[in-house]
Task: inverse folding
C-alpha cells in the first residue's frame, strides 16, 4: 500500500509539472501559390465608330484549384461562346458553339464564328484550354459609304480620285514600273469602278487559342493567334484576257506568346514569337511577278500612298512584361492595319494578338522562429517540485537506514 | 522490503553508501527548495547596481541617445497600490529578466508615443509583478526615466492571453499606452496576464 502511495505521488508530481510547462509554438508552412493566364485574339476591327472583336480565347488557372476557359467566335456573343469554370476537381468539355452568317455591326459579314473550351483539375494540376475562330469575314464598300453618307460622291471618287491616284500608286511602287503602267490605265479605270460597287475588302482570319497546363513540375501558359490575309480590292476579273487580282494582298503570319513557371524554383520564363507581314502589291497583270515587301518586326509601312486606298501597316514587336498581379508575361503585339484611310478615315484592324503570363511562389517551410512567445516570467515551477521529490526520497532512504541499524 | 533490510544489516558498505546518498539527496532538496530565495537575493543585488546606474549622468546621456544595451537600467516602475518599486532593464531575454522586469526592446521607450511594453517576473527574481492581477481600472503606474516622469492609469481589468499572442505588445502609433506582461497562473508559464494602461501625465520625447 505504501509503495502504491509513493508511485501515485510521483505520477502526480510529473503530471503537475507537465501542466505548468508550456510547449513552444508550432511553425506553419507556406502553401504553394501560382497563377497562369493566356489570351489570344485573332481580329479586332473598328470602322465608323463601330467595332467588334472576333476569334477570342482566354484561359486561367490558379493554385486555389480553379480553371476557367472561354472561347468565343465573337466577343460578348453568347451564341458563339463556350465556357468552362471549374474549382476543386473534375473536368468539363464544351465543344464548338457556332453561329453562321453572322452580321456584325452592319459593316461586316462573318460566315462562321465558333468558340470551344475545356478544362480539368486532377490533383493539384488545373488545366484550361480554349479556342475562338471565324471564317469568311467580308466588308462591302457600299455599306461603308452608306453608313458614312458618301453614296453620292462615289462616282466622282472613282473618276477623279481613284483613277488618277491609281497611276500614282503604281508609279510610287518600289520597283521601276513606269513602262508597265501606261497600258493598264484603261484596265484600272473599268475595273476599279466595278470593284468599288461591290466588295472592297476581303479578310481571311484564322483562329486564336489559349492554354494553361499545369503538371507536377511546371505551369505553362501559351496563346496563339493564327495569321490572316487581307485583300484590298479583291475581286479577280478577266481584263483583256488576263486575270486581274487584288490591288494589294497583306499576309500576316501567326503570333504566339508563352510563359513557363517552374514550380520547384518559383522562376518564370516568358518568350514570344511576333507576326511577320508580307505585302504583295498590284494585280498580276500590272506588276511583275514577285513584287513583295516584307515589313520587319517593329517597323511600319504605308502602301497605296496618296490614294483613298492608302493603308498603313504597323508590325509590333513582342515584349516581356511584369504584370500588376506579379506574374511575368510575354506579349506578341500582333499587327495593326489602318486600311483605306482615304475612305472616311478608313478601317482599323488589329490582328494576331497573343499574350501569356504566369507566376507564383513555391511551397516553403516556415522559417524557424527561435521564440515567438511572450517572455517567461513565471519562474521554473519544476524546481520546487523536484526539491520536494528529492526531499521525500531522502527521507525514505533515511528511514530505510534506521530500520537496517 | 524485508530482504533489502536484511541485506543492509549484513553489509556494512551498503549501509555506508546509502547513508552518503541520503545526505546528497538532502542537500539537493535544500538547494532546489531554496532556489526561489536565491533568485530573490540575486535580484536584490542586481537592483542595487541598477539603482546606482540609473542615477548617473553618463546613463542619462546614453538614454537620451538610445544607446542602451540589453541589461542596462532603463526606467524605474512604481505601482503604489502594490508597493512595487523596481528598476526595469532594457531587454526581455532570460538574462535581462533576472533584474525582475525588462522592457520589450522593439517597443517605444517609456513615456513616448506608442505602446510601451514591460515584462516582469511573477515568481522568483524579486517577483515584482506577483500581484498585478489585483490592479483595477484607474490604478496608477509611474515610470521614472533618467530624463522624466510619467504616469499611466490602468484602463481595463487585467486579462489573460496565450503566450504566443504578441498583439498585446504591438505598437500603437498615436496612442500613449503601457502594457505589462507576466506569467499566469502564478508559478506557471501556461498563459500570460496582461495589464493595459493609458498615459495621463508626463508624455516625453528624447529630443
Result:
Amino acid at each position: 500500500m505504501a509503495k502504491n502511495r509513493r508511485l501515485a505521488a510521483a505520477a502526480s508530481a510529473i503530471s503537475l509539472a507537465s501542466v505548468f510547462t508550456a510547449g513552444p509554438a508550432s511553425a506553419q508552412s507556406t502553401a504553394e501559390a501560382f497563377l497562369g493566364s493566356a489570351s489570344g485574339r485573332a481580329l479586332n476591327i473598328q470602322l465608323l465608330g463601330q467595332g467588334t472583336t472576333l476569334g477570342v480565347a482566354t484561359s486561367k488557372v490558379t493554385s486555389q484549384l480553379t480553371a476557367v476557359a472561354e472561347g468565343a467566335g465573337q466577343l460578348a456573343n453568347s451564341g458563339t461562346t463556350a465556357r468552362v469554370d471549374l474549382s476543386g476537381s473534375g473536368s468539363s468539355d464544351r465543344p464548338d458553339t457556332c453561329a453562321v452568317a453572322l452580321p456584325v455591326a452592319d459593316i461586316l459579314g462573318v460566315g462562321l464564328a465558333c468558340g470551344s473550351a475545356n478544362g480539368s483539375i486532377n490533383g493539384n494540376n488545373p488545366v484550361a484550354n480554349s479556342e475562338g475562330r471565324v471564317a469568311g469575314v467580308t466588308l462591302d464598300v457600299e455599306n461603308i459609304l452608306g453608313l458614312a453618307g458618301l453614296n453620292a460622291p462615289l462616282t466622282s471618287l472613282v473618276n477623279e480620285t481613284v483613277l488618277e491616284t491609281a497611276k500614282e500608286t503604281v508609279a510610287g511602287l518600289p520597283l521601276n514600273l513606269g513602262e508597265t503602267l501606261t497600258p493598264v490605265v484603261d484596265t484600272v479605270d473599268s475595273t476599279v469602278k466595278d470593284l468599288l460597287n461591290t466588295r472592297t475588302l476581303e479578310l481571311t482570319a484564322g483562329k486564336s487559342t489559349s492554354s494553361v497546363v499545369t503538371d507536377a513540375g511546371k505551369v505553362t501558359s501559351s496563346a496563339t493567334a493564327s495569321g490572316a490575309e487581307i485583300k484590298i480590292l479583291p475581286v479577280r476579273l478577266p481584263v483583256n484576257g488576263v486575270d486581274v487580282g487584288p490591288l494589294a494582298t497583306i499576309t500576316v503570319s501567326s503570333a504566339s506568346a508563352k510563359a513557363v513557371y517552374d514550380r520547384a524554383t518559383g522562376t518564370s520564363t516568358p518568350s514570344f514569337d511576333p507576326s511577320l507581314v508580307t505585302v504583295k502589291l498590284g494585280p498580276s497583270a500590272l506588276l511583275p511577278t514577285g513584287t513583295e515587301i516584307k515589313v520587319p518586326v517593329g517597323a511600319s509601312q504605308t502602301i497605296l500612298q496618296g490614294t483613298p486606298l492608302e493603308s498603313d501597316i504597323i508590325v509590333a514587336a513582342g515584349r516581356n512584361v511584369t504584370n500588376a498581379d506579379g506574374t511575368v508575361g510575354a506579349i506578341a503585339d500582333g499587327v495593326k492595319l489602318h486600311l483605306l484611310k482615304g475612305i472616311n478615315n478608313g478601317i482599323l484592324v488589329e490582328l494576331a494578338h497573343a499574350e501569356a503570363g504566369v507566376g507564383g511562389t513555391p511551397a516553403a517551410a516556415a522559417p524557424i522562429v527561435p521564440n515567438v512567445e511572450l517572455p517567461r516570467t513565471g519562474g521554473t515551477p519544476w524546481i520546487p517540485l523536484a526539491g520536494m521529490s528529492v526531499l521525500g526520497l531522502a527521507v525514505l532512504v533515511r528511514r530505510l537506514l534506521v530500520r537496517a541499524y | 522490503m524485508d530482504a533489502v533490510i536484511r541485506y543492509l544489516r549484513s553489509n556494512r558498505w551498503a549501509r555506508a553508501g546509502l547513508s552518503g546518498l541520503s545526505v546528497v539527496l538532502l542537500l539537493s532538496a535544500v538547494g532546489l527548495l531554496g532556489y526561489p530565495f536565491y533568485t530573490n537575493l540575486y535580484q536584490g543585488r542586481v537592483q542595487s547596481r541598477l539603482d546606482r546606474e540609473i542615477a548617473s549622468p553618463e546613463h542619462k546621456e546614453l538614454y537620451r541617445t538610445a544607446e542602451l544595451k540589453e541589461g542596462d537600467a532603463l526606467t524605474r516602475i512604481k505601482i503604489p497600490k502594490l508597493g512595487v518599486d523596481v528598476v526595469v532593464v532594457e531587454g526581455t531575454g532570460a538574462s535581462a529578466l533576472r533584474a525582475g522586469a525588462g522592457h520589450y526592446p522593439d517597443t517605444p521607450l517609456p513615456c513616448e508615443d506608442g505602446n510601451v511594453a514591460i515584462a516582469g517576473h511573477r515568481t522568483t527574481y524579486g517577483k515584482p509583478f506577483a500581484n498585478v492581477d489585483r490592479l483595477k481600472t484607474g490604478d496608477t503606474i509611474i515610470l521614472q526615466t533618467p530624463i522624466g516622469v510619467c504616469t499611466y492609469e490602468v484602463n481595463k481589468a487585467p486579462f489573460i492571453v496565450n503566450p504566443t499572442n504578441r498583439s498585446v505588445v504591438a505598437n500603437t502609433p498615436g496612442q500613449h499606452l503601457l502594457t505589462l506582461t507576466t506569467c499566469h497562473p502564478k508559478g506557471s508559464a501556461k498563459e500570460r496576464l496582461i495589464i493595459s494602461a493609458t498615459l495621463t501625465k508626463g508624455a516625453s520625447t528624447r529630443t
About this structure: The interface with chain B takes residues 19-22, 25, 372-381, 383-384, 386-388, 390-391, 393-394, 397-398, 400-401, 403-405 of chain A (CB under 8 Å).
